[in-house]
Amino acid sequence: LAWREPGDEPLPLPGHLVSAVTPEGQRLLAESAAVADHGPLAATFERQRRPAYCGVASSVMVLNALRPAAPRLTQGGFFDDWSTELRVTFNGMTLQELAGLLRRHGADARPVFAQDSSLEAFRAIATANLSRPGDYIVVNYQRGALGQRDGGHISPLAAYHPGSDRFLLLDVAGYRYPPTWVAAADLWSAMNTLDSASGRTRGFVLILGR
Predict the structure, then answer these.
(1) Does residue 171 have an active-site annotation?
(2) Looking at 37, 38, 54, 195, which residue is catalytic?
């Protein structure tokens, strides 16, 4: 099961989340002030190819968006050693491991643990990032805190709507959930949860090209 590509298994969104494919979700995108990352990420969007590959799919999307002229990186070609691929296939990856793997592909990846930041700081950093081309932000959060199926997850952010204070989460588990608008406070609470694998909170990674 760990190696098998997930099949379509759509689940209902909790009422406080807004699907990006609904008229309301499309309205939020049209009114968004910080959308520089949406186009490049939409063009490189990938569903995760294995159940624990959310970090791999998110990384591949961001790296391909950073280097549109380079040969396209695939999830199958993401790892350069068997031991790391095996570990991630069965266990996923922590925030620190996500940043480290992005660095191995030449990106400037800077992890920020929620325990070392705040909602206000995250909102300011993420909004500035989403307003500029050429850099990206990936979040590591607990799905259960959003009312979704429980478990840690990783996906990129693509836009921010100031009027509703919501971020657009491009969920790489597209077989289960659509791209979703999440209130900043709810997303922060989901990131500010303990990852038992690292003993630290989840958080976000800022990614720049080199």
Answers:
(1) yes
(2) 54
- Asked if 16 is an active-site residue, the reply is no
* DSSP, res 180: E
Which H/E stretch holds residue 27? helix 23-31
| Cβ partners under 8 Å of residue 69, min gap 6 | none
- The three-state DSSP-derived secondary structure of 102-165 is HHHCCCEEEEEEHHHCCHHHHHHHHHHHHHCCCEEEEEEEEHHHHCCCCCEEEEEEEEEECCCC
Do residues 159 and 37 lie in contact, with contact meaning Cβ atoms separated by under 8 Å?
Answer: yes
Residues 92-134 pLDDT 10s: 999 999 999 999 999 999 999 999 999 999 999 999 999 999 9
First to last CA, the chain: 36
Query: What pLDDT was estimated at residue 5?
Result: 85
* Catalytic annotation, pick one of 37, 135, 161, 171: 171
Q: Report d(CA 100, CA 6) in Å as an integer.
A: 26
Catalytic site residue 116? no
CA distances to 54, 127, 186, 188 from 132, rounded to whole Å, are: 24, 9, 24, 21
Name the active-site residue from 37, 38, 105, 153: 153
d(CA 31, CA 42): 17
Res 209: pLDDT: 67
d(CA 180, CA 167): 8
